[in-house]
Amino acid sequence: MDAVRTIVAEQPPSLDRLLGLAASDMAAVDALIRRHMDSPVPVIPALADHLIAGSAKRLRPLLTVAAARLAGARGDACLKLAAAVEFIHTATLLHDDVVDSSELRRGRVAAHLIWGAPSSVLVGDFLFARAFELMVGAGSMPALEILARASRVIAEGEVLQLTRAHDMDLSQELYLEIIGAKTAELFAAAAEAGAVSADAPADRRRALRTYGQALGLAFQLTDDALDYSGASEELGKNPGDDFREGKATLPLLLAMMRTGTAEREFWVRTIDRRDHTDADFQRARELMVQTGALESTLDLARRHARQAKAALADFAASPWRPALEDLADFAVMRKS
User: Fold this and answer.
1) Quick one: which of 285, 306, 303, 302 has its CA closest to 294?
2) What is the pTM of this model?
3) What average pLDDT does the chain have?
4) Between these two residues, 231 and 287, which has the higher pLDDT value?
5) N or C: which end of the chain has fewer CB within 10 A?
6) H or E stretch at 55
7) Residue 76 CA, distance from chain mean position
8) Alpha-carbon gap, residue 118 to 122, rounded angstroms
9) CA 223 to CA 73: how far, in whole Å?
């Protein structure tokens, strides 16, 4: 266990600078979220609040606000878009947890285990609808197009992952395509929508989209490594969920490739046939450390974090730029 945990043992950088700058904006975003969760059907606000209240950081709407302010926004046009981003994200989580039969989400019992899968799926649909109402209310057709496209791409990424979930021969390129769609696309859209709300020129929009895309890839790669190296009290979910579900994430793909024929039967039994025990999960973790699969995954995450920071280089000096650089560092050094 200690050998695994040392990989992510660094103290994560603080987001205090970004959270401080965005405090008043995010309070307004939270108020919008609460208001638009309301419904005369009691199960809807109850179920939505169960998941949304567990989100302490709200990274994606925070990214929309920060990108808007970095791009020069002075008004509150970005706030509705930020709330819409959070609703899109929460809707996808509700759907994902049903598909994956997840037990925990953000440290809480998954909603589908309390209210049932049909309610979780339908409340996810409600949140998507609310997101589109917020986008329309923001009055920006380009932002609506960006976030609508992101919703489609995310769905495509989830379906692609589902169809290749237990593919032991999945290439690294296709894996990156999947996480680029299912995770990084919303980060990219969140940042680009923020830039659009500030009426930023095309080059600034592209730069912030690049930042968001790279940040999202760094975030998901780190998440995939943490599934094998974290602890449930830090992750807010059960470590090893990806292994038990047979998900072909990069740490697993690299470990299978690097152990070769010597461990082929182990991987076929545990991933392809999903016949495994707690001891098998510990064995998989050990193999990932021995082969350097976890470290390679985190190295790639760090490379994307550097690309994210590089995308901000041409923006004028302001408190928001180093704060967004902190966010890129946080993405790869966090423990949850």
Assistant:
1) 285
2) 0.91
3) 90
4) 287
5) N
6) none
7) 25
8) 6
9) 31
3-state DSSP helix/strand/coil % of the chain, to nearest 5: 75, 0, 25
CATH code (residue 202): 1.10.600.10
Amino acid letter, 212 = G
Q: Measure the CA–CA gap between 23 and 130, rounded to whole angstroms.
A: 23
Residue 65 carries which DSSP code?
Answer: H
* pLDDT tens for each residue of 240-293: 888 888 888 999 999 999 998 889 999 999 988 889 888 999 999 999 999 999
- Determine the Cα–Cα distance for residues 178 and 157; give it in Å rounded to an integer: 5
* Burial (0-12, 13-18, 19+ Cβ within 10 Å), 112: buried
Do residues 140 and 197 touch, judged by C-beta distance below 8 A? yes
Identify residue 178 by its one-letter amino acid code: I
Residue 328 belongs to domain spanning: 2-333
Token pair of 211 as six digits: 């930042």
Query: Rounded to an integer, what distance in angstroms lies between the CA atom of residue 315 and that of residue 198?
Result: 14
Compute φ and ψ for 109, nearest 5 degrees. -60, 135
User: Does the structure show a pLDDT above 80 at 102?
Assistant: no
Amino acid at 322: P
Separation between Cα atoms, residue 195 and residue 198, nearest integer Å: 5
Single-letter amino acid code for the residue at 87 = F
* Contacts (Cβ under 8 Å, ≥6 apart) of 194: 63, 64, 65, 66, 67, 68, 69, 70, 71, 73, 78, 81, 82, 208
What pLDDT shows up at residue 257?
A: 94
Determine contact, residues 98/118, Cβ cutoff 8 Å. Answer: no
Q: Which residues, 6 or more positions from 7, have their beta carbon under 8 angstroms from its beta carbon? A: 225, 229, 289, 294, 295, 298
| Window from 134-143, 223-232, 254-263 with minimum mean pLDDT | 223-232
User: Into how many domains does the chain fold?
Assistant: 1
